[in-house]
Design goal:
- This protein is an alpha/beta fold.
- The protein has helices at about 15-25, 80-85, 90-110, 140-160, 185-195, 215-225, 245-255, 285-290, 300-310, and strands spanning about 5-10, 30-35, 50-55, 70-75, 115-120, 165-170, 170-175, 200-205, 210, 210-215, 235-240, 245, 265-270.
- It folds into 2 domains: about 5-170 and about 210-240, Rossmann fold (3-Layer(aba) Sandwich), CATH 3.40.50; about 185-210 and about 245-280 and about 290-320, Alpha-Beta Complex (UDP-galactose 4-epimerase, domain 1).
- It is globular, with a radius of gyration of 19 Å.
- The termini are far apart.
Length: about 325
């Protein structure tokens, strides 16, 4: 009888992490979740996972981590570029320092597989599009700097015997995203206004563009990389590969919610610090090495997200931090 595999998922009480935990449990894994609940919620942790509240930026936290872990999925982070400008030192602690401490814990415990959620923010603004992993990164936010620093930590620990993989996630969206957080997640921010029948506040130009990737596809990217030796030491873009402007996104969100786009009130204001004007991914590398590609088109994904948000008995609860 095969031994049950054990995974540690940091940030497993958050949006993407909870989806990944659910997938691993369905695949028969034993899953340990670590989260400091600063943005995640305990209700997000799927039944069957073991939960521990920990601040991974504290050196003492590693003594409370579980033993016998086979794989670490490191998704815990402060994930807002805007927030990183308000508290750059806190962002450094939550992102770079926590990653370094966790990598060193893996090395001392003999855990050899480490998958890391990096970000498109490492690229900054670039004229060459779509972006490829071999391009020179130039992050515009403290968040992007700290994600890039964490990638370099992974490279060093790869040489020390860990099999590490970094996934540069683009704009992830889907059911379960925190509509109460108006500082992170372009889709969830705009959708939150529409669900409340309020004017949509857009920080920046409608001509900005992004690459939106559905959360289920992101989970599949982690799973696709997990057991493939070719991904050890790799850094991969995880996006749809499709350029979508803010104006196009607003139209699709309104249509998904059954609203008429023409005439719906939209207020444009100044941009946020460190915001990238436009970016979308070249996902050739991950497709070549794993066969992964995004399978959910934006219109379908937004429709599924809108059904989730509007179908709650009291969807107003979404704006009180409930997910």
């Amino acid at each position: 009888m095969a031994r049950i595999r054990r995974a540690l998922v940091t940030g497993g009480a958050g949006f993407i992490g909870s989806h990944l935990v659910r997938r691993l449990l369905n695949d028969g894994w034993q899953v340990y979740v670590v989260d400091n609940l600063s943005t995640g919620h305990l209700d997000n942790v799927p039944a069957g996972a073991e939960f521990q509240k920990l601040d991974l930026s504290s050196p003492s936290s590693t003594r409370y981590l579980p033993v016998g872990v086979d794989v670490v999925f490191h998704l815990a982070a402060q994930s807002s570029g805007e927030v990183s400008f308000a508290r750059p030192d806190a962002d450094l602690q939550a992102n770079s320092r926590a990653t370094l401490l966790l990598l060193d814990w893996c090395r001392t415990r003999g855990i050899t597989r480490f998958l890391f959620a990096s970000s498109m923010a490492v690229y900054g603004d670039t004229r060459q599009l779509p972006v490829r992993e071999d391009m020179c990164p130039a992050p515009k936010s403290f968040y992007g700097i700290h994600k890039l620093a964490s990638e370099h930590y992974l490279r060093v620990f790869q040489k020390l015997g860990l099999c590490t993989t970094a996934l540069r996630l683009f704009n992830v969206y889907g059911p379960g995203q925190n509509l109460a957080n108006l500082k992170q997640g372009m889709v969830s921010i705009y959708l939150s206004y529409v669900v409340r029948s309020e004017p949509v506040l857009v920080r920046g130009s409608a001509a900005r563009f992004r690459d939106f990737v559905f959360v289920d596809d992101v989970v599949e990217a982690f799973i696709a990389c997990l057991d493939r030796p070719s991904t050890c030491g790799g850094i991969y873009n995880v996006g749809s590969g499709t350029k979508t402007t803010v104006g196009e996104l607003l139209t699709l969100i309104l249509q998904a919610c059954g609203r008429v786009p023409d005439g719906y009130p939209v207020i444009f204001a100044g941009g946020t610090p460190g915001d990238q004007h436009g970016i979308y991914a070249d996902c050739t590398a991950i497709c070549r090495d794993t066969g992964w590609r995004a399978r959910t088109d934006l219109r379908t994904g937004l429709r599924r997200m809108a059904v989730w948000a509007l179908g709650r008995p009291d969807h107003a609860g979404l704006f009180k931090g409930e997910k």
